[in-house]
Design a protein that fits this description.
Blueprint: H1 37-40, H2 42-68, E1 74-77, E2 84-86, E3 89-91, E4 95-99, E5 111-122, E6 133-136, E7 142-143, E8 170-179, E9 186-190, E10 197-203
Parallel strand pairs: 1-10
Antiparallel strand pairs: 2-3, 3-5, 4-5, 5-8, 6-7, 6-9, 9-10
Length: 205
């Protein structure tokens, strides 16, 4: 007996059902795209971008104020009569003289000595000041007093400042050592502890 070609042999094992690819709806869901560090922190980064310049400005303003608030920045120059009325006193007129290195002072070679005398007539109960400084007008170079450095002992009759709360008229004597290439005119600047003003005289010894 002959079976048709499409008939199944009764003695053969049953055929396995054909494999069917799972439907797309039954497939595992795709993993979401990985979020970068920049995207996760974008709000915080935006806040930093806004607040950082503000913080720098605030800190900078405090630093500026702390540096300049206690420093004299406004000069009160001498009048036509050579004096300045300020801080409960009349200052000046100033006298100055330059000395060579061979005139008995302990001055280093290549330099000279400038002695400045400043009369102070106290008008109130007292006046205060620090030791004057010498400033070369051409370059802005600055020198402080060197009384003990050149061998001059301290003398209450020739003070270099008025920090002792002077209440009577007196003279300030301030020596400066300057290099030979220094040229006048100079400024003599006096901090009277009344910031932001300071007194300024012009000399050309």
């Amino acid at each position: 007996m002959t079976l048709p070609e499409d008939a199944q042999n009764p003695l053969a094992p049953p055929l396995a059902p054909p494999l069917v690819a799972p439907e797309s709806a039954d497939a595992a869901p795709a993993a979401p795209p990985r979020e970068t560090w920049w995207r996760r922190n974008r709000l915080a980064l935006g806040a930093v971008a806004v607040l950082f310049p503000v913080a720098v400005g605030v800190i900078g303003s405090y630093e500026w104020w702390g540096y300049f608030s206690g420093r004299p920045v406004i000069a009160i120059d001498q009048g036509e009569d050579g004096v300045v009325t300020h801080a409960d006193a009349i200052w000046g007129p100033v006298k100055s003289k330059a000395f060579a290195t061979d005139e008995g002072f302990d001055v280093p070679p290549g330099s000279s000595l400038i002695l400045v005398q400043i009369p102070v007539d106290v008008q109130g109960e007292k006046t205060n000041c620090e030791a004057p400084e010498l400033v070369e007008q051409r370059t802005g170079r600055r020198w402080t007093q060197v009384r003990t450095e050149i061998g001059l002992p301290s003398d209450s009759e020739e003070p270099t400042d008025c920090l002792a709360d002077q209440s009577k008229p007196f003279d300030i004597f301030v020596p400066f050592v300057v290099p030979d290439d220094a040229e006048g005119p100079y400024w003599v600047e006096i901090d009277t502890l009344t910031s932001p003003e300071f007194i300024r005289f012009t000399i050309d010894p």
